[in-house]
Amino acid sequence: MSENIIGYIDEQGNIIDTQSAGDNCQATPIEYDNSEASLEIIRHSTAHLMAQAISELYPNAQFFVGPVVDEGFYYDFRVDEQIGENDLKAIEKKMKELIKKKYTIEKYEMSKTEALEKFAHDDLKQKVMERIEDDTLSVYKQGDFEDLCRGPHVPSLRFLHNFKLTRVAGAYLGGDEKAEMLTRIYGIAFADKESLKAHITMLEEAKKRDHRKLGAEMELFMFNEEAGAGLPFWMPKGAKLRYKLESILHKAHLMRGYEPVRGPEILKADLWRTSGHYACYGENMYLTTIDEQEYGIKPMNCLGHIQVFKQSPKSYRDLPLRYYEYGVVHRHEKSGVLHGLLRVREFTQDDAHIFCEPEQIASEVLEVVEFVDAVMKLFGFDYTMEVATKPEKAIGEDAVWEMATQGLKDALEGNNLPYTIDEGGGAFYGPKIDIKITDAIGRKWQCGTIQVDFNLPQRFEVEYVAEDNTRKQPVMIHRAILGSFERFIGILTEHYAGEFPLFLAPVQVIFVPISESHADYAYALKRRMRLEGIDAEVYDKNDSLNKRIRNAEKQRVPYVVIVGEEEVTHNTVAIRDRRNKEQYNLTQDEFMVKLTQQLQEGKI
RNA sequence: GCCCAUAUGGCUCAGGGGUAGAGCACUUCCUUGGUAAGGAAGAGGUCGUGAGUUCAAGUCUCACUAUGGGCUCCA
Length: 604
Hints:
Number of helices: 19
Largest sheet: 8 strands, mixed
């Protein structure tokens, strides 16, 4: 057996560790490196090593499960002491001590009955075994530490060096909110030191573009303890950015035949009862009483649009009718899930409801998908689509659900658009296509959504007059493309690391006059910019030129423009490119043309 | 909501049972400089909120609020 082989992959793609394979294994060997299979073994063994260290430091610790996940590994366990981030160092240190003992990792098997007996004193192990169907269970042993485990593991602790424990967290036993909460420690491990270092650097880079940090630095948005959690404030620069995004999207909606509407923020609770929100979504709603009448603050915009639709009789000739609204909604999210702009309690959706005939579903859904694609391309986002099916808490008949779900799949399949299925992930009133985009550190966020709804039209008796003069029920398609301005701007900020394209940047140009005598020229330029709808600032504070240039650069604006004697004389500007730091001169007119042309990039 | 952690001037952070400190930012003055920090002076904080322990609490304890890392859920 080669020194560097830590396991094998059989023909089915299963990983077999050296303990299980024996000496004459014919399967493909797994070398000790950063391949997927190798990391799987290394990380799993590192999780066990961590458990061993924890059991030495906290002798009464009991262990649940310690799997490998996308970003490394974790172990769930129960312990009497409180473990905080500061304790991770001590655990790491103990792990390194254990490595020095060069334990081999041995495997032995026993029947489930024997195992149940062996771990009779350990209720967590009993719970683990409840979830296992096999009759034969394996135990891995290193030094005095042994643990029930399926493997695979490295042959010896000597293969483990490059790891880091990253965070400590609480996790419900088995992911069940009603179950006891265990302590979870996350860690990461690699085959070599460089990869570990690179990973840590990547995390630090991601931290630098965290939208919460940039949002504060760039004065885009803020939160306020006195106002309450999850309630964002938009500062002037953030509001400008948001307004630009709203305008781009507003035009895009009009071009696609949408009509703006607007509903009230609060509606009587009876309407929410009719819709089913009261029963299915009530725990997330803010309710209030006015003149002994119960009202609900809207968590969604559909009801308003339905009332507008119903205001006058509609003909099949009116369909499809596309109502859209930047709808402000309030949802009572649990305090622990709030996260910068990505998860808030008040947010504005770019919401639309398309009322159409059942035969129009596929073409309407497809048009929305194309709209989504145009928006995602504009910002350079990768995204995936997911068809979400009927959840446990749902209204409407199964047959209706099936028809709607199939409609969504047909629209995607008919146009060769790839998608995955999220079983049980639908809204309570219908199936949906979720559009998920990936942020700067690889987290996936749901943004856009397309939902087919046969239920609300029925509940509210929404009707149109068909060609044969009978009354029919339209289908409602709920859709959002950004999802919410809050979340989308949060993701955009991280995506661009704060360096927004010209058509979004809250400040598009900063003029830096070389000395006081050139300030007038700079202000004249600023006025000219404003007439063209371009946001510019003049940095003429009593600071050195270098410092003002530095401050301007730190603002992450698309253009920093220096003006001095030469520019004033020739009516030109000296532009610093923010990317390559080169500079070039243009006449005022050329610069204006360049800017207005570049603004066109924001059209969809 | 639950587990763990954190909370000191606008920002980043140091300090620590005897009554608060730095850098940046801010104000004023000098400096008018051609591409990432010129110099000087000044102002600014009941140390998140409320209780408790103590002769004495910003420092210790508890509760609450907010934030961060997770669990669960969602745009």
